[in-house]
Amino acid sequence: MIREWLDANPIGIEDGLRHDKWCAMMWPRLRLLHELLAEDGSLWVTLDDNEAQRGKLILDEVFGEHCFVTNIVWQARYSVSNDTDVSLSHNHILVYSKHKDTWKKLRNELPRDETQAKQYSNNDDDPKGPWRAIPWDAPNVRENLSYPITTPSGAVRFPPRGRCWSREEAKWKEIVAAGLDYYGQNGDGAPSYKRYLEDAGTVVPTTWWPHTNSGHTDEASKELAAFNLDVPFQTPKPLRLLEKILTIATRPDSVVLDSFAGSGTTGHAVLSLNKRDGGNRRFILVQLDEENGKANADNLTAERVRRVINGYDFTGTQKTQFLRERLNWRAIEKAGDLVDKVQGIENLHGHEYDRITKQVKDGELIVTGERRVSISSSGEFVIRPLPDVTRASGSKQRRFARQLRASLTYCSFATQRTEMWRCRPMAMALGPFSKLASTT
Ligand SMILES: C[S@@+](CC[C@H](N)C(=O)[O-])C[C@H]1O[C@@H](n2cnc3c(N)ncnc32)[C@H](O)[C@@H]1O
């Protein structure tokens, strides 16, 4: 029904009802994803600024407000667009779980990244290696946590005004006995203790995901270009982003469902994580066949996964599409802006590619970077088909949902591309991919 309605009502960028139509498209899909999600699983939704707030309201309604875990801000772009008022740097990742308290206990922490490790140093040549001073004082005023501490120089310290020590005196004495107490470089500053990098372990995920440790869209385009699929696709996600999400949200036996799979980054990331930790995560990728026949489940999503699975040696021309813009009257009126944009691309990326091509095809201007590359990887995989529920009745689909119990579902949207969501029911493009071995 929704498909017929959307087909009869093409959605343009100036359509006053575009947000209502987006909500109408999302509602049944998120309801279905909620049904498919395991009781201890989580849903991760990447949205840009166009629909993030509406996405949050729909998700609050579908899951219940109490199931909202967080809104992660991912720095998707590091470059600045000079042709706009405020250059967009981030995307939102909305996270929901069916039972927030249980999920909190199940979710994983992240390995310490380079920036976090740099907070540790070794300015006193400690044989245990890099360390950092953790202050002993904490907020609050508590009488039993306000005991005196004597520094090596003999000065007596109490907690700063309005604060107390973080633990009881007995704990501090253990720290002193272990030789971990520290009072600043002069030896008579505020009490703190040494925490060594080698004992620091993993870190709790935060809501700020900079491109330095979560990847960016440029990197994602390059990763996809390495497969030389010759299928234009503008909105891939970087492998590092998906690996990070999977690290937090999955166990080695999890089932991962990406219902808007695009270039199949999620499948690639599952395979890569399985390889790293010997896990047996399985994945289901859903991708609709775009009507123009360009990016579809078989020639894009499945093909990338196939190549990761079989390994790929590639020597040839790698192409990255930087711009694809319809040349309508509006674009012609603002031709100067378009030329500036193309020149900006040439300035920014010219040195990374052998050449930047500009082509007008089927009423669109396409700007592509091309370079010769040589890549090699290998792997060993078996693809096991899942039951085809595309033509199944409602009750059969519900049975499948119960069997599936996905541990994590992920969807990502670039909502300014309105044509993307003039789409068919999700189940029509259910992909038959499941991992049994490991690769990449
Ligand atoms: C932003 S892209 C996803 C990018 C993906 N995470 C990647 O790394 O390539 C969204 C994708 O969802 C697809 N799509 C849109 N509506 C869909 C639907 N109803 N069912 C399945 N896929 C859909 C679009 O064709 C597009 O490929």
Structural notes for this entry:
- With 440 residues, the chain is α/β, with parallel strands linked by helices.
- The chain folds into 3 domains: 2-110 and 206-312 and 404-429, Vaccinia Virus protein VP39 (Rossmann fold); 114-200, no CATH class; 315-376.
- It has 15 helices and 17 strands.
- The strands form 5 sheets. It has a 7-stranded mixed β-sheet with strand order 11-2-3-1-17-12-13, with helices on both faces. Strands 4-10-9 form a 3-stranded antiparallel β-sheet. A 3-stranded antiparallel β-sheet has the order 14-16-15.
- A hairpin with a 2-residue loop joins strand 15 and strand 16.
- Helix 2 packs parallel to helix 3, helix 10 packs across helix 11 (265-277) and helix 11 runs parallel beside helix 12.
- The longest helix is centred in the first third of the chain and has 19 residues, at 18-36.
- The relative contact order is 0.14.
- Bound molecules: S-adenosylmethionine (SAM).
- The site of S-adenosylmethionine has 20 residues, from loops.
Features:
440 residues; alpha/beta; Rossmann fold; 3 domains; seven-stranded mixed sheet; three-stranded antiparallel sheet; 15 helices; 17 strands; disordered C terminus; binds S-adenosylmethionine; methyltransferase activity
Structural domain count: 3
Helix content: 25-40%
CATH topology assignment of the largest domain: Rossmann fold
Shape: globular
Question: Helix count, per DSSP?
Answer: 15
Count of extended strands: 17
What molecules are bound to this protein?
S-adenosylmethionine
Output the strand order for the largest sheet.
Answer: 11-2-3-1-17-12-13
Query: What CATH architecture of the largest domain would you give?
Result: 3-Layer(aba) Sandwich
Percent in strands: 15-25%
Q: Major beta sheet, specifics?
A: 7 strands, mixed
Radius of gyration: 26 Å
GO biological process, one term: methylation
Region (Disordered): 110-130
Enzyme class: transferase
Family: Belongs to the N(4)/N(6)-methyltransferase family.
